[in-house]
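A quick aside before the break. I want you to see a complete sequence-to-structure record at least once, exactly as it would be stored in a machine-readable document. Don't worry about memorizing anything.
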Amino acid sequence: MFPINRPRRLRSHPQLRRMVRENVLQVSDLIYPLFAVPGDGVALEVKSMPGVYQLSVDKIVAEAKEVYELGIPAIILFGIPESKDEQATGAWHDCGIVQKATRAVKEAVPDLIVIVDTCLCEYTSHGHCGYLEVGDLTGRVLNDPTLELLKKTAVSQAKAGADIIAPSGMMDGFVQAIRAGLDEAGYTDTPILSYAAKYASAYYGPFRDAAESAPKFGDRRTYQMDPANSREALKEIALDIAEGADMLMVKPALAYMDIIWRVKEACNLPVAAYNVSGEYSMVKAAALNGWIDEKSVVLETLLGFKRAGADLILTYHAKDVARWLQA
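That is the input. The structure line, written in tokens, reads:
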């Protein structure tokens, strides 16, 4: 005897399945990461990330126009400076590469939302996300002096026209410091998308090739989160909300969908998931070898992030996804 309620009844037709679908992936959910480098006419493919490039500002503008035409609402900018130093000068200088790219994009595509990564690792000579104790080779970043650099960086980025500031260094109190700096400089309407739960993950390897940001020594486990912890993520988001965060991010996404879910359940702010470089590169490698259907796997993965509670998804697949969804 079969039960009276037979779930397969609602799966019998494509239109019926669409009518009862609980989660929908949309182009408006996507944010596309871009890597800005000095020069003109530069487009260097990142070997560990097929289809992803380091781009000069003119090429960034061309990408921004294409992104906007595809209906993707936002990009996030990362920068690789000409030179690096212990003060991370390239991060906060008004003529820094991200500042230049931001101004150029906002002039060319004013309605495209420009998010800027507010961190220091791409700009420091040692590759860590802030000041280090002199002679310390463990990677223990000095928290409070780093906050001053982050504040300067955020203000410089907002001055250049950034729509959203996205601090990613996982310093204690970084949202509060940046909010204070932005408010003092008159950027009270500039929102903060905090990398609130950013884990010390092995999935970041290809990104560090793209951003040229691998630490010269030690690791980032003294400031990024332990992958074994979930309750700690809720503590981090509570602190960031109290300090003035407008949106929250979980990074990485694929191995942390439980964290996305817990963060979404614990707050009423928009939640972003970062589909990071290692996740992207694994799919690309498998697809290039003919082991998987790239489109199907990518769409299923991103839909999984939505099901877990993500409102926004940062992904290197964004342009392809936009085309697939609109086909």
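Two observations worth writing down. The mean pLDDT is 93. The first helix runs from residue 14 to 19. We'll return to this after the break.
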